[in-house]
Amino acid sequence: MSALTGTGTLVRFVLRRDRVRLTVWTLALVGTVVGTIPALNDMFSTDAQRQARAAIMDTPTGVVFGGPGYGLDDYQLGPMVVNELTMSMLIALAVMSILHVVRHTRAEEESVRAELLRANVLGASAQMTAALVTVSLVNLLIGGLTTLTLVGNGLETADSVAYGLGLALAGISFGAIAAVCAQIVEHGRSAAGLAFLVIGVLFMSRVVGDMAEDGGNALSWLSPFAWAQQTRVFDDLRWWPLALYAAFIAVLFALTYALARRRDLGAGLVASRPGPAGAGGLLNSAFALHLHQQRGAVLAWTAATFLFALSFGSLATEVEAMLEQNPDLVAIVGGSAEDATKGFLGVMGGYVLMAASAYAAISVLRTRTEETSGRAELTLSTAVGRVRWFGSALLVSALSSALIVAMGGLGMGLSAAAALEDSSWTWTMLGAALAQLPVALLFAALTALLVGAAPRLVPLVWAWLGYSLLVSMFGALLGLDEWLLNMSAFELLPKLPNEEFDAASVTVALGAVLVVGAVALAGFRRRDLATV
Amino acid sequence: MPSTAIEVRGVDKYFGRFQALDKLDLTVRTGQVAGFLGPNGSGKSTTIRVLLGLLRADAGSVGLLGGDPWRDAVTLHRRLAYVPGDVTLWPGLTGGQAIDLLGRLRGGLDSGRRRELLSRFELDPTKKARTYSKGNRQKVALVAALASDAELLILDEPTSGLDPLMEAVFTECVLEAKAQGRTVLLSSHILSEVEKLCDTVTIIRKGRSVESGTLDDLRHLTRSSVRATVAGDARALEGADGVHNLRIDGETVTLDVDNTRMDTVMRALTGLGIRSLVSNPPSLEELFMRHYGDEPAARGGDGSAAA
User: Fold this and answer.
1) A278 closest CB neighbour out of B54, B89, B100
2) Which residues pair with B252 in a beta bridge?
3) Which of B8, B94, B100 is nearest to B57 (CA)?
4) What is the ipTM metric for this complex?
5) Could you identify which of A155, A260, A339, B239 might form a hypothetical disulfide with A150, taking C-beta atoms 3.0 to 4.6 angstroms apart as the criterion?
């Protein structure tokens, strides 16, 4: 029996088990490409409009989510697709690939299902290989369909192939990163977290590199986020940057198998050590228990957000430098250089809020896991009432999101203050972030409402969060109607520091949080506990 | 203190259209060890969750320690300790931390007894919960429950993951709890375990209590199955008082014997010249098939000498 025995069966099994999940990802991503092209043609139908858009893509915010800026001189459909879509596609592919690989490797081992499979006629590397094969297949499928879409819209075949292949190889690279992470740590959740952290660092290194120099400097070249655009598709095509992906993937795959051979099933490279024989004095309440359960995740999310904010805040000088080099930009972003900086930091602050909102929902959702796993039953059989148990969980979620928001604002403010040598930025950005906190709390409250009153409807929270993320990132680009835009949670409150603080809407939002939270608690008190 | 610790009358519980409990009755007197016996899926855990106020009864009345478990959950829970049938612990906590946490949430833990129980159950409290086997997770919940001062212990199939040695330790612990005057509700699907420990037994099937009383009351339910090799002609046993399901295959004879008639039947067997003899208590499943007419029993019938 070789190490790969049974891989084929497993590949089919993974594809079958995930047929809905993978289909949705494929349709959503290819659909984005299919849907964006007419929108781009429509919104930027004249040369003047297109060049005006190109100028915006040359601003700091444009560089963050656009790329190194190839093809901006003659901003036709091809370059538009590459500059407007690539980063979002790469981020989505990264999320998909990481979740897929972790789900079929480490998370599977953790659930003991892997034991059941490995006891069967199955090679030691079969599961890992099946995960890598399937993640490659789905990335290639998405890349291939993207190519077909571009060719179908009359774009050059060679460039379209290079672009689709670039996306696919980038996606596989992210999957390979996840595979290595899954070997290092013991839990699916931490493996995914570690992989996202690595991806975040790679994304930042491209942003910093692309901002420092047109076409990106060495820092940018270190990142797989850069290579897909370094082929200069639809501008001056060169194929060799794709070889970087091939090398990157080969090295990481080899590393994965080498690490896998060195460890037991279920074990991490770092063995878990014995812990304390008794609980410390602080672990004496439902609140302490929830906090203890979440502290690792809270620290990780806070640290990641803080670092993200710190690095974007420090780009404030780049904003000024770019405006000095290109005074026309001032007209595009409107107002003064300071307004441009505020606008840039405000947009980046939006991402801090998105992270905190996602964490708020995830954190409240943990109560559902506690319940369905039977742990809540054990806790609630003691002298802890339901309202106290659920309420303290909500309090932990609210405090955690507040911490993430505050540290995000503080990080951005501190580094902007240091970069611009003006300490007032610290308080401006901290205040701007905290003014948006009610939105994150609203996500916590809504998740609580569904967990408390209608657990089956929990996916609705994800639907709204996903909708809000998409609309806030692409709404303007897709030319959506005002009312569709306004349904995004991230448009509920004014975006400081560019917009004015509005005490009334913040009060209404906080009131809604309290009311929804109270209904959630009442619902949880009244219903049957889920039984195992 | 009321003389009845648990008083359940005519309780119905539906999950959607599925009826889990059907006019269930259950009474446990203070200071007694009460067995709650039934096959898997008969509604034992559902009843216990209703008693804990985790599920709300759709009909009937539920009294626990003189209160209403749905309304007064927190005050009542200070006075009881619960061990679930399938214990799930927090992956980030060690067994010792989980024991302390559960004890504190309940309102206190006797640290001397905690230490003693840990050593009797041979449980290493420094291991992370995720590395524990099912039996060890059960021990964590047992130590937390037994080390408390709770006046009522609710134990849901507490030995299902324990090895025989640990089962013996568990038996001792329950008898000690009884000696301290505590009330115990012990659910199980193993008849012998209940026989060893319990003063009274309630048998539940498909959500209904079908039998309840002291063990002596239920003695008529207990038959032993006997398998023997004899020299003489076993047909002599046909129709004898207390003999059921007699089957003769050459020199080998198998039969079920009412425990009350064991002595006379053994004398008859001895008269035939016993070469080998095996006697087993009946399994709960056999008991149910015989007494409550499940399909297999209906097919087999209750006639003697069905060879």
Assistant:
1) B100
2) B229, B249
3) B8
4) 0.82
5) A155
